[in-house]
Amino acid sequence: MNKLKYLGIGLWAVASGVALAQAFTPEQYKLGNDTYARHCAACHGARMKNPEGSFDLPTFPKDGKERFIRSVAKGKNSMPPWEGLLKPEEIEALWAYVHMGDKGD
Hints:
Cytochrome Bc1 Complex, Chain D, domain 2, 0% strand
């Protein structure tokens, strides 16, 4: 009976769009790491450490991809918009880097 309960919970999570795990390619992670180093590290800290008043990216909600993409593209508070300066695939790769943190190395 417990197996059915856990199966039901798992099916509900998948059907409701809850991401149990998100897979990123090594290429995405590398592009995100490189893009972060070039454009984000000055404010958010090298490797997302010691952000000096900017948003602490390792605390960004793992289920907040759309919010992250929108914030990077359109800007938020004192962060300028990056849409037009970064390609959509670079912003997606930034999500991979932020989502995985140093685990991708």
